[in-house]
Amino acid sequence: MSLTISPVDYDDRPDWEALFQGYADFYDTDARGAIGTVWSWILDAEEPFWADIARDGEGRALGLVQYSLLHRSLSGGRVIYLSDLFTVPEARGKGVGRALIDHVRAFARENGYGSVRWLTHESNDTARRLYDSYAPASGFILYTMPSGG
Q: Where is the N-acetyltransferase domain (predicted)?
């Protein structure tokens, strides 16, 4: 499959929003309240948050990846945190997810960041097979709690 991966820009909002909503739906999350904020991060050149869309040869948006900088205190460095990866159902298993991950790895390498990190739900078996082809799971367990405010 012929793919192009390019940064999201202002004119990409309809495709970006459809992919972002698909990602939220996959995780059964209501992200409508976050759309404006995330969109502003993408368009802000000072914000260390990036979004890219994978398109097929006909220009159809097949996948989305969003990533940002993460400070690693134990190494005194920064790494790339791949926060969101989504492909439309009809593109799954066709190399779109792998191409998006490789794209982020290249970004990290070209910008001097030592690694790329991400999380996935333990039940996301299809994605985990892809992720396991890159590296074994780290063994860390994520905890999330409200700030109490």
A: 3-149
Per-residue pLDDT of the chain (149 residues; tens, 9 = 90+): 799 999 999 999 999 999 999 999 999 999 999 999 999 999 999 999 999 999 999 999 999 999 999 999 988 899 999 999 999 999 999 999 999 999 999 999 999 999 999 998 888 888 889 899 999 999 888 888 999 86
The pair of structure tokens assigned to 21 is: 């909503």
13-26 vs 35-43: helix crossing angle, rounded to 10: 130
Which secondary-structure segment (H or E) carries 40? helix 35-43
Delineate the domains of the chain, giving CATH numbers in brackets. Answer: 3-133 (3.40.630.30)
Answer whether 53's CB lies under 8 Å from 5's CB: yes
Residue 133 structure tokens: 């082809």
pTM: 0.92
CA distance 32 to 35: 5
100 and 23 Cβ atoms separated by less than 8 Å: no
